[in-house]
Please model this.
Amino acid sequence: MAGGAELEKAAELYERLRRLSCPGLEGVYVTDPQSIHELLCSPSVHRLDILEWICTRAHPPLQEQFFTLKESQADVKVKEMAKLGFDLMLCNVDDVDLVKGAVSPSRQLSFMGQLLDIIQTCEKASVLSELQPTTPGGGRNLLTCARENEELLKELFSSPQFQETLAPECNPWPADMKPLLVPEELQKRTPPCSKDNDGSDHVQELQKLSLSLEDLKKECQFLCSSAPDEDTVVPKLRSALTDFHRLIADFSQVYENEFQEHCGHAPPPMSPSGPLFQLAHQLLTTCCKELEAIGQFTETSSTVEEVVNKREQAKEYWGRGSMSTLCEKIKELKQDYEKF
Model:
């Protein structure tokens, strides 16, 4: 018998399927929570049809693929549904038992509920795309968006410019060196910019800073010397000024060519993939807590073992007689008992 919380979750899932007009529930009239639980969690052809409809609703291209399969190819459908769950980060790629219903009912209900969350999220995104037809990417399904975002992230992390940003050649200078690099009038903090500012003020400040660095370079002619006995601080300072000036020039060029045209535009639409990332964060948090609990259990076991070892090796007075350890006292009692 399932618990009350599990029966309640099954009834809630059944009601969500009825609201979505699931074809697998046509002609099915069950009101008992236990019967609903058996319908959704017991392995059967009917349950597999319901799950197949949920998967095709979450990823419509899967329906065309299932249409070409024969009835004897049910195992192929099961593998494709497991692969869909893997692509959506809901299960493993070979987790066919979850699709067939051979795992715990709570895991089956959770899997179906997450798929229904994705369906509702996609429907909300579709409604928004109809209300705003000019929105970029309107009408695309969630799986396509996830794969495009994955390719974009791969391209970003593999770019050499991103790696140079993570590991710059020149480390930031300490606070006591700032007066030697920047004039006093530029060290004062500028007031915060409003949200409506398009970034032109920042560009002007960078241009002023670039001109100041050029003037500073002209004034510090000793930095260009290459005497063999010069101090090691001088080449470091010269290298820092050169790298800093190059970074400012590169940023100004990138802003003028790529960023400036986007500053006046409306913010991009939010991605409908929020529940998936929340689920991934929840699973990672649970994993961290379990690892922490295992670490505490291991530490406690070591402490108990250490206390027991000390107890066995420590010598004490056991009534009358000389001091002895616990093992020695047990042997002595055993010998006395055998003699008796």
Remarks:
- DSSP finds 15 helices and no strands in the chain.
- Residues 274-313 form the longest helix (40 residues).
- Residues 132-139 have pLDDT under 50 and may be disordered.
